[in-house]
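Thread title: Can someone regenerate the structure for this chain?

I was given the following input by a collaborator and told the matching C-alpha cells would be attached. They weren't. Posting the sequence so someone can regenerate them.
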Amino acid sequence: MSKAKKSPNKGKKGIIRNFAILFLSVVLLVSGVGCVYADQMLGRINFVPMDNSSKVETAPIFQEGTTSGNTSAEAGVLGGLYHDDAITNILVMGVDDYQPNDPGRSDSMMLVSVDSRHKKLKLTSFMRDMYVAIPGHGSQRLNVAYSTGGPQLSVSTIEANFGTDIDRFVLIDYASFSKIVDKLGGVTMTITSGEAKLINQNSGDKRRNLTAGTFLLSGKQALYYSRIRAIGDDFERTERQRKVFSSIVEKFKTANIATINQALYDVLPLVTTNMTKNEVLNMAANALTYLNYPVKQNRIPANNEYTSERVTIAGTIADVLVPDLDKATKNIADFIYENDLPSKTYQGK
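Best answer:
Regenerated them for you:
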C-alpha cells in the first residue's frame, strides 16, 4: 500500500499523454501528405469490423457539441452506459510482446475522450492490476481481459465495471516502439548502472557497452529500458516509459518528412483498430483542433478508490488493486461528461 501512494500520477499521466499525442500526431501526418498517399498509408493499418452484438445504435463519432448545449448531439444514458454524442471515447491499448497462440496482455490501457462539447482532450488511464469482473470469465486482473477475449472483451470489461460507453478501440503492438526509435535514429536517455547492466544482458542488441550515463539507445535498447521490471516498482517502470515516449515525440517534431514517412510505413501495420478509414481521416482532419484542446488527465482507480489485497488466481497468490466501483464510476462520469448527464445512481453496470 505504501508504494501505491508513491505519487504514481506523474509517470502514468506522462505516458498516457505522450501515447495519445503520438497516436494523434501519426494520424495527422498521414492525412497531411495527400489524399491518395494517405489512403495507401491507411491501407497498412489493420482495420477490423465493429462487433455490434452488445452495442446499442449510437450517432456517428466525432460530432460537434457546444458548452451551451445548443446542439443536436445528446448526453445521457444509453443501454445502461453513460454516453454523449459530442464525446468520442477511444480505448488505446499497448500490448505486451506475445508468442504464437498466446495473444499476450494489454500492458497499458487509456481511454482517450475527444470532447467537442467542452473543447477538451481527456485521458483516463486504467491500472492493469485492478481486480474486476470479466464478463463470462469471473474475476481477474483487468489486463487478462485482452488475453482471454481480445480488445472487444477489454472494452466490454471496462464498460461493465465502470459504466461508460466506449466507441472504438486502437491496439498498438509494442514492437512498433523499437521500429519507431530505429527509424528516427535512436533516442538519448540517461540511465543508471543497474539499468545499463540489465539492458546489456537482455535487450538483444549486440552492443553491450552501456554504463551509467547518457547514451543514444537503439530501438531494442530503448524498448527493454522502458519495460525493466527488476528495478523498482511498476510506477518507476511507467516513469521510464514516459521518458522514452517523450523522446519519441520530440524526435517526431524535428524529423524530416522522408524519415517520418518511412517510420509510418513500417509502424502502421502494427496498429489495429475498429475505426473505419473515414473515421480515422475525420479525426485526422480535425487533429490540429483536438491537439490544441487543453489536456485533462485522470487515473482509475484514484488513490482513495481502491484497496490493496492478495487474492488467489488460478491457484497462485497475487497482489491486486480492488477498486471501489461506485467511487470509480462516479469519478469517470464526472471527469468525462462533467455536468451534462441526467441524475442517476452510479452503478457502473
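Residues 1-8, 344-349 have pLDDT under 50 and may be disordered.
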